[in-house]
Structures are given as structure tokens and as C-alpha cells.
Amino acid sequence: MSRKVLVLGEVRDNTLRNVSFEAIAAGKTVAEGGEVVAVLIGDTVSSLANELFYYGADRVVTVEDVKLKSYTPDGYSQALLAVIEAESPEGLVFGHTALGKDLSPKVAGKLNSGLISDVTSIEVAGGNTVFTRPIYSGKAFEKKIVTDGLVFATIRPNNIAPLEKDESRSGEVTSVSVDIKDLRTIVKEVVRKASEGVDLSEAKVVIAGGRGVKSADGFEPLKELATVLGGAVGASRGACDADYCDYSLQIGQTGKVVTPDLYIACGISGAIQHLAGMSNSKVIVAINKDPEANIFKVADYGIVGDLFEVVPLLTEEFKKL
Ligand code: FAD
């Protein structure tokens, strides 16, 4: 069944986040040959439209207002609901990011619609659009279909591959004007924490440290390896609780969920709550001096050894490539 699908282009620091391009690819599957319309919300965002076309959007709709400079649930939902009213889509796809997780239930509630959240793959089978999502902290997967009404889903970053970039693609950009009012939240200032380098939730390579790094300085060899591999540094809650790093790096059930191509766990025991945030990574390497550590049960490659010896060796070897 062919559908018109709206996809949210997520903007941070005047740049589109990768998940926006993944959402376009997901939107194409949901559209089943129908139109994929990307929505850009912000104060001045229309210059980003081309990038959305390169990744497959058929059309772009912008909502620009100085009150939309920073994300607020009230402001963004007013903007989106106006676009939804103007476009009457049959499908909606957002990234399952902090923003998407906050905004999607609010919009779904206003539309009296269901929502399939944290989707890791979408396929068309037996005449249905089938959404797969992890449950029980990633121990099982469930498949869902929408039998009636709006097809609304959020997709987990790094799971659905974007279409190949094609700079010859272009399309029509239109704008919807909205009187953004009655904002209950006004963002005065954004203070970034530990945001240097690659964004952890979208990183293709994550080097994560646990209590085994033993101190804040113990993260230095991990940072070096991450730099060489173009990746991001993450952590277990054990490392965060011990004050070796900021909680914004925490991966797991009560932290971030990551699915990079390569996850290197250094000095992490592999508690179930940590596995919930990383066990769907494509390739997992574990470095731990305890051969019985639980992390080896989910690892594709295990190195039994002292991380302070192994990590610098890996860094030296990767530098040669
Ligand atoms: P440890 O379990 O202490 O493991 C340290 C490991 O380092 C050991 O395996 C040791 O052999 C190894 N090691 C030590 N020195 C070296 C060395 N030199 N070289 C190599 N290896 C070495 N945890 C999370 O991570 N994320 C979460 O989101 C999360 N949420 C939680 C929610 C709840 C409700 C609860 C109760 C707990 C949660 N936890 C979470 C905590 C979790 O249960 C574990 O306590 C935590 O993951 C342990 O962190 P760790 O593996 O770094 O530390």
C-alpha cells in the first residue's frame, strides 16, 4: 500500500544528524513507493534541505521561527502538527533520539495515534509493513504491524542504512508558517557536556571503559584509540559512578543505547544492564583480565589481558593501517 510519509530531519548545531538520512531510508520502505517528505524545524534551516534530497527525500517542508531555535516539546509539536495538517500523511518516521523519544509520544497523543518506538528494521512482507523492535533489554525482538490509521515509528540510530548519497537529486522546498505560542518552556542557554569528537549515539566505533580503567586518566589510552579509529568513547555505569567520566558517556539500560559497527569494551565485566545498551553492536571486542568475565559471552573477539597493555598495542597497529 503506497503511502505519503513525513520524516523528521533532526538538526543539531546547524547540521543534520545522520539519523535523519536513516529515517528517509526507513520512510521509503514505509512509503512503499509513495512520497517521502522531510520536515525541517528551526530558526533558519532551509539551507539544509539539499542534503535531505541527496539522501532520497522527494520533497522538503520547513517551519522556521526564532522560537524554534532550540528544541522544546511544545514548539516542535505545534510546528509538526501544522505540517501534518497541511500534508495529511499516512506515515511518520522520527529518529529514536533524545528529541525523537520526547516528541513522538506527544505528537502521537495529539493525533490519537499508535506509535512503534525504537525500531531496528522494517520490511514489507505478506502485504504488510513489518516493524522489528527489541524488547526485554535486547534479549528478544518483536515484530509489529499497523492494521489501522497512521503508521508512526521511531527508528534506533545506526540500524537502518541510509540510501547512497546522490548529489544530483533535488526537489521542491515549501514552508509552513505557524504561530508558535503558549510555550511552557523557553531554552535560555544550552550547556554541552563531554561533546568533543564523534556523537556517541551515532558513532560507528565505540571504545568503552569500565571500572577496570581505574581512574579518569585511565580513559586516556581509550581516547587515543577512539581518535585513531574515528570513534567515540563510552563508559559503563561502574566507571561513571566511580567518577572516572561524565554520565553522558554511560551506555546501558539507564544510559545510551548504541549499535556501532565496532564496540570495544575495556575493563567492563558485562553486567546485564550494560549489555542492554550495546549487545546489538555489529562486532564486539572485549578486553578483560578475567577470563570468566560475562562480557566474553557476548563478544565476537575476546582478549584476556591488561587493558593498559592491550589498548596501546591496538592503537599502534591501527595507526599503521
Ligand atoms: P565491574 O563490574 O567492577 O567490572 C570491572 C571489570 O574490569 C572486571 O571484569 C575486571 O576483571 C576488569 N578489569 C579490571 N582491571 C582491568 C585491567 N587492567 N584490564 C582489563 N580488565 C580489567 N551499568 C551500566 O554499565 N549501564 C547501565 O545503564 C546500568 N544501569 C543499571 C541500572 C540498574 C537499575 C542497576 C541496578 C544497575 C545498573 N548498572 C548499569 C550497573 C551494573 O549492574 C554494573 O554494576 C556495572 O555495569 C559494572 O560496571 P563495570 O563493568 O565497569 O565494573
Automatic annotation (TrEMBL):
<feature type="binding site">
    <location>
        <begin position="267"/>
        <end position="274"/>
    </location>
    <ligand>
        <name>FAD</name>
    </ligand>
</feature>
<dbReference type="Pfam" id="PF00766">
    <property type="entry name" value="ETF_alpha"/>
</dbReference>
<keyword id="KW-0813">Transport</keyword>
<dbReference type="InterPro" id="IPR001308">
    <property type="entry name" value="ETF_a/FixB"/>
</dbReference>
<dbReference type="InterPro" id="IPR033947">
    <property type="entry name" value="ETF_alpha_N"/>
</dbReference>
<dbReference type="InterPro" id="IPR014730">
    <property type="entry name" value="ETF_a/b_N"/>
</dbReference>
<dbReference type="InterPro" id="IPR029035">
    <property type="entry name" value="DHS-like_NAD/FAD-binding_dom"/>
</dbReference>
<keyword id="KW-0274">FAD</keyword>
<dbReference type="InterPro" id="IPR014731">
    <property type="entry name" value="ETF_asu_C"/>
</dbReference>
<keyword id="KW-0285">Flavoprotein</keyword>
<feature type="binding site">
    <location>
        <begin position="236"/>
        <end position="237"/>
    </location>
    <ligand>
        <name>FAD</name>
    </ligand>
</feature>
<dbReference type="InterPro" id="IPR014729">
    <property type="entry name" value="Rossmann-like_a/b/a_fold"/>
</dbReference>
<keyword id="KW-0249">Electron transport</keyword>
<comment type="similarity">
    <text>Belongs to the ETF alpha-subunit/FixB family.</text>
</comment>
<dbReference type="GO" id="GO:0009055">
    <property type="term" value="F:electron transfer activity"/>
</dbReference>
<protein>
    <submittedName>
        <fullName>Electron transfer flavoprotein subunit alpha/FixB family protein</fullName>
    </submittedName>
</protein>
<feature type="domain" description="Electron transfer flavoprotein alpha/beta-subunit N-terminal">
    <location>
        <begin position="5"/>
        <end position="190"/>
    </location>
</feature>
<dbReference type="GO" id="GO:0033539">
    <property type="term" value="P:fatty acid beta-oxidation using acyl-CoA dehydrogenase"/>
</dbReference>
<feature type="binding site">
    <location>
        <position position="288"/>
    </location>
    <ligand>
        <name>FAD</name>
    </ligand>
</feature>
<feature type="binding site">
    <location>
        <position position="211"/>
    </location>
    <ligand>
        <name>FAD</name>
    </ligand>
</feature>
<dbReference type="Pfam" id="PF01012">
    <property type="entry name" value="ETF"/>
</dbReference>
<dbReference type="InterPro" id="IPR018206">
    <property type="entry name" value="ETF_asu_C_CS"/>
</dbReference>
<dbReference type="GO" id="GO:0050660">
    <property type="term" value="F:flavin adenine dinucleotide binding"/>
</dbReference>
<feature type="binding site">
    <location>
        <begin position="250"/>
        <end position="254"/>
    </location>
    <ligand>
        <name>FAD</name>
    </ligand>
</feature>
